[in-house]
Amino acid sequence: MTALPLKQRFQLSRFVLGEKAQAGEITLNQRRIFILPTQRGLNFVVLIGLLLLIAFVYNNNLAYLLGFLLASVFFIAILHSYRSLAGLTVRAGQTTDAFAGESAGFEIRLTNPTPVARSLVSISLENTETLALAADSITALTLYKKATQRGVLTAGTITIASTYPLGLFRAWSPLRFDMKALIYPKPAPASSPIPEAYGEQTYRGQLKKGVDDFYGLNAYQPGDAIRHIHWKAFAKGQGLLSKQYGSEHSGEIWLDYQQTAGHNLEERLSQLCRWLLDAEQTGLHYGLKLPSLTLEPGHGQAHLTTCLAELARF
After folding, report:
1. What are the Cα distances from residue 209, in Å, to 188, 191, 216, 241, 248?
2. 3-state secondary structure of 292
3. Which pLDDT does position 102 carry in this prediction?
4. What single-letter DSSP state applies at residue 126?
């Protein structure tokens, strides 16, 4: 661990935001642990002051004894508060991507390499989790952060704290890891049907509707067979859709940014996101066309994740 210049040691941001983000393991030591009295601790100081004042006014040795005894407890609690965090190691784990408006997950691994159990250890991002660390143990937990917009979300400052043993002091350590989660566009409401699918020969104008191979969904038209209605989509409020079939080849669709309706970039990406999810659920093979890249048609969770990731980075 490199030494900090004197100017950086006393920067206020170190006490609130922590040092610069890093990818490796962090060990909590005297450089990273800060301690201040809690409200209970300040009240305790006032009590000690009153006892010593009474002892001075009335020259009462028992009051002196009690005052100095409480003062010794106060100062010893500083050491125990520091030891409640000292020696713990913290490592970043996996991240969980999310859609805009949801919460992304950031996994944290806490290791207690000492033979002493740690109690009342709290770890917080947006919410706070309190846990007890057994001796020589590794504990993993996932913290969540609200994603308000599409793109890349960084974890920010993760704070580990403890008020052990008496709640007189709060020892804390603000940490920053190089953790990033992808935030996909928020899926548009299920109101617009998936674009018509195209088989291998569509580009030559040779594919005809038939009854053999399913190749996509279209808005229901009077005269379409009732058995072709996509009842699952209707139950989800996506409107009345009719299954379309091709006679020679299995279906595949192209989801093209340029052909997607929307008033702005985010609306178009949200619609593409909805179509990707619906196409995957329906079992279609789908490709994605963006101004900067083209992803060939595919199917499966890995293909869906790749497409969503490109929308997040677009």
Report:
1. 29, 24, 11, 16, 9
2. coil
3. 94
4. S
Confidence at residue 226, expressed as pLDDT on a 0 to 100 scale: 64
Q: What does the chain come to in residues?
A: 314
Question: Cβ distance 181 to 96 under 8 Å?
Answer: yes
A 10 A CB-CB count for 136 gives 12
Nearest to 119 by CA among 131, 135, 129, 136: 131
Decide: 277 and 258 in contact? Cβ < 8 Å: no
Give me the pLDDT at residue 249, please. Answer: 41
- Record the pTM: 0.76
Q: Which residues of the chain have pLDDT under 50?
A: 198-212, 247-250
Q: Are 143 and 120 in contact (CB under 8 A)?
A: no
Sequence-ordered alpha helix ranges (H) in the chain: 6-9, 12-16, 39-58, 61-83, 231-235, 265-282, 301-313
Spatial CB neighbours of 111, under 8 Å, sequence gap ≥ 6: 88, 89, 90, 91, 137, 138, 139
Q: Which two tokens stand for residue 119?
A: 């109690």
Identify the three-state secondary structure at position 139: strand
Burial-class residue 110 by CB neighbours within 10 Å (0-12, 13-18, 19+). buried
Query: Is the Cα torsion angle 79, 163, 13, 112 positive or negative in sign?
Result: positive
8 Å CB contact between 67 and 55: yes
Q: How far apart are CA 144 and CA 107, in angstroms?
A: 9
**Structural domains present in the chain:** 6-184 (2.60.40.10), 202-313 (no CATH)
Q: CA-to-CA distance for 251 and 215, rounded, in angstroms?
A: 3
CA distance 255 to 269: 11
Output Rg (C-alpha) for the chain, integer angstroms.
Answer: 30
